[in-house]
Amino acid sequence: MTAPTPLIAGNWKMNGLTAALDEARKIAAGAGAAKGRVAICPPATLLQRLGQAVAGSAVLTGGQDCHPEPAGAFTGDVAAEMLADAGAALVILGHSERRAGHAETDALVAKKVLAALRAGLEPIVCVGETQAQREAGHALEVVTGQVRGSLPAELSGKAFCVAYEPIWAIGTGLTPTTSQIEEMHRAIRATLRATFGAASDPAPILYGGSVKPSNAAEILHAAEVGGALVGGASLKADDFLEIAAAL
């Protein structure tokens, strides 16, 4: 098995004005000490400027979503090619906030993954269950179903990540136990191998959901955890770098 290259990715969501570039510069100054890759996914309005702010450092940049089509009459949408043109190397797709707030299905997420590949971007495909689904005993079924439905066959042999984010842990301060995280990450890995074979082994499985400096080391050293997709803590350089240092 080829060991996955760890990734710590910051999802700034709908946060960040010009002043936030100072935090990005601080992250860039310290990112070289991280054992894995470090990325920031800012709002589209900051993407190009943030890329310029961290130029020459180890920090990668990414988008938070993309449209399946390369261009067209889609007011307010951003194409994968536009993200790449602005300097992005990655793109987050299928985040629970988009699945819930924008009614994104697995099939739509899969189309967006194809768009990312078309533009030469590395997709970070998000999956996760609600608290009701977990309490009903359906967490593994829901998440592995999302993996199968959201990752098209064309990903075989390509660079990609899967991010497991239990919806009930995002922004709530709640975190699954280490055993719950390991159980889910092992199930995701088994699903990837069943779908893509050994070609999926280099793909890291990130954990996301209230990751912070105080719990990062425990989470990042759990079995099959290949990094983290970090929300609020990625907006503060000191916190984000402390998480990256825990790899």
- Measured by DSSP, the beta-strand proportion falls in 5-15%
Radius of gyration: 17 Å
User: Structural class per helix/strand content?
Assistant: alpha/beta
Largest sheet: 8 strands, parallel, barrel
Alpha carbon gap, first and last residue: 20 Å
- Structure summary, number of beta strands: 8
In helices, the fraction of residues equals 25-40%
Explain what this protein looks like in three dimensions.
By secondary structure, the chain is of the alpha/beta class. The chain has a domain at 106-211 and 226-232: Aldolase class I (TIM Barrel), CATH 3.20.20. It has 10 helices and 8 strands.
Question: Concise description?
Answer:
This protein is of the alpha/beta class. The protein is built from ten helices and eight strands. It has an eight-stranded parallel β-barrel, surrounded by seven helices.
Features:
alpha/beta; 10 helices; eight-stranded parallel beta barrel; 38% helix; 15% strand; TIM Barrel; 247 residues
Layout: helices, strands, pairs:
Blueprint: E1 7-11, H1 21-30, E2 37-41, H2 47-53, E3 59-63, H3 80-85, E4 90-93, H4 96-101, H5 106-118, E5 122-127, H6 131-135, H7 139-150, E6 161-164, H8 178-196, E7 205-208, H9 213-220, E8 227-230, H10 237-245
Helix pairs in contact: 1-10, 5-7, 7-8, 9-10
